[in-house]
Amino acid sequence: MTLELSHLNRHFAGTPALDDVSLAIAPGEFLALLGPSGSGKTTLLRILAGLDQPDSGNAQLHGRDFLAAQVRERKVGLVFQHYALFRHLTVAENVAFGLRVRSRKSRPSGEEISERVGQLLKRVQLDGYGRRYPTQLSGGQRQRVALARALAVEPDLLLLDEPFGALDAQVRVTLRRWLRELHEDLGLTTVFVTHDQEEALELADRIAVMNRGRIEQVGRPEEVYRQPATPFVCEFIGKVNKLPLTCANRRLSAGDWVLEGEPWSGRHARAVAYVRPEHLSLGAAASQPGWTARLRHIYLAGSVAHLELDVPSIGQALEVDVGGEDVARLGLQVGAELRVAPQRAVVFATDGQGGHASHAGRWVWQAQDVQPA
C-alpha cells in the first residue's frame, strides 16, 4: 500500500522546517529527498521514523494513521550518516541489537538471531567480520554494518539519512550502486535523504526536490533534470548557465541570441533562460541564433572537457561541456574565437516584482522547434 503524506507542517522557533508537504511513497519505490541544508528533508525523515511529530498534517498507510503508531509498530529501519554503532559491541552484536531488545514475546531465539545475523553479514559482504569491533573497520564497512542492523528487524520502510556523507568519493560510488542492487533484491521501500544530486539521479526511482520546507518538484530523475518545474530546481540539479532575457516585439533575447515566438503574448517584459553546458554547441552557423565567444579556459576532467567561454555581447561567461577527445579534434585552444549556440533551454518569465521567476511562465525552448510547456 502507498504511504500518503498530507499537508505536513513543522516549525522550529517560528521557522517552518516543513511547509504544507504532501507526498505519496509507493511500495517498493526508491525515493530520494534532495535539497540543500535546511530544506526540511531530514525533518521529514525523522517524522517518518517516529523521532519527531508534525505540528499538523497526517500520514495514512493501509487506511490507518501511520504517525499515531508506536515506533516499533511502524516497521521502519533507520541508517544515519555517522553510523551510530555501539563501539563496545562486536559487529555481530551491533547487527543483533534491534532483535535482542524486543519484548520476550516477539524476540527470536538466540539460535534464530545468530542465523539471521550471519545471513545479513553475508548479504552486506561482511561475512567473517562478526567478531570485529567498529574501530577495526573502514568507513564503508561500518556503514554496511549500520545497514545490516537496520535490515535485521525486517523493515517495511528503510530510511537513509545521508548514509554516505562521511565517506570518500570512490567508496560512495561503490556503495550506492551496491545499495541500489540490495534495494531491488529485497523489494524494500526506501527513502533516501541526500544533498548530493549525483547520488539522487543515479539511485532513485523518483526524486522529491525540497527547498525551505516545501517540495518544489517530484518526478523521475530524467524528468527533474530535463523538465525542471522551477528556477530553484534548474539551478540545484546539475550545472546550468543562467541568462537574463529581455522581451521586445514578442521576441526574447540575450545579446545576439534571439528566441522567436515567445508564448506569453508580451505579458512579461523579462525572463531568465537556463541552459545546460551540454546543450550549448560549438561551431554553429552564423545564421543560427547564438554568440561569438572567446575560449578562456579548458578544464579536462577525464572523458569530459569543461570549457569556459567569454561572451562580450551578454557580458558574462558561459560553461560548455564537450567530449574530452573533441578538444584535439576541434583544435580548441585558449584564446580561440568560437561561435556558440544554445540547442535547448528552459525559460521562466519574471513577474516584475523583484525579478522573481514565475512558475506559470515556463517555456521549454529548442532550436528550430519551439515547445511551450
Written overview of the protein:
This protein is an alpha+beta fold and 373 residues long. It contains 9 helices and 22 strands. The strands form 4 sheets. Strands 13-12-11-14-20-21-22 form a 7-stranded antiparallel sheet. Strands 6-7-8-3-9-10 form a 6-stranded mixed sheet, with helices on both faces. Helix 2 packs across helix 3, helix 2 (91-100) packs parallel to helix 4 (139-152) and helix 3 crosses helix 4 (139-152). The protein is elongated and about 80 Å long.
Overall shape: it is: elongated
Low-confidence stretches: 369-373
Helical fraction: 10-25%
Number of helices: 9
The mean pLDDT is 90
Count of distinct strands:
22
Q: Helix/strand-derived class?
A: alpha+beta
- Portion in strands: 35-45%
CA distance, first residue to last residue: 33 Å
Radius of gyration: 25 Å
| Widest β-sheet, arrangement of strands | 13-12-11-14-20-21-22
Quick one: biggest sheet?
Answer: 7 strands, antiparallel
